[in-house]
Amino acid sequence: MTIIQVNDKKITLDEDGYLRDFTQWFPEVAEALANREGIAELSAEHLEVIHFIRGYYERHRVAPMVHFVSKETGKSFRELHRLFSKQPGKRAAKLAGLPRATGCS
User: Fold this and answer.
1) Cα 79 from Cα 19, distance rounded (Å)
2) pLDDT tens for residues 57-86?
3) What pTM was computed for the model?
4) Looking at the annotation, which residues are catalytic?
5) DSSP for the chain?
């Protein structure tokens, strides 16, 4: 378990860097997580994807599949890969504050 300080709040992460509590997320947490993942700055495109994923998770309690994110945001898999690099669905979900998906390595 890791604790990061974002503004004046302590945010708890699991051993893989995922939020332990979905409700601890706020935009500055996404920025801190992005920096940990080697993404220097979150653009409006990043945030569009992140907010879509958060909204989907809030409604369904499961992360959307990357092809669904692509379809619903209008961003091709190539664009998602450009934004989030390797494993764009997994990395975007991490930045969105979703818990680590069962079965992901």
Assistant:
1) 25
2) 999 999 999 999 999 999 999 999 999 998
3) 0.91
4) 104
5) -EEEEETTEEEEE-TTS-BS-GGG--HHHHHHHHHHTT-----HHHHHHHHHHHHHHHHHSSPPPHHHHHHHHT--HHHHHHHH-SSHHHHHHHHTTPPPPTT--
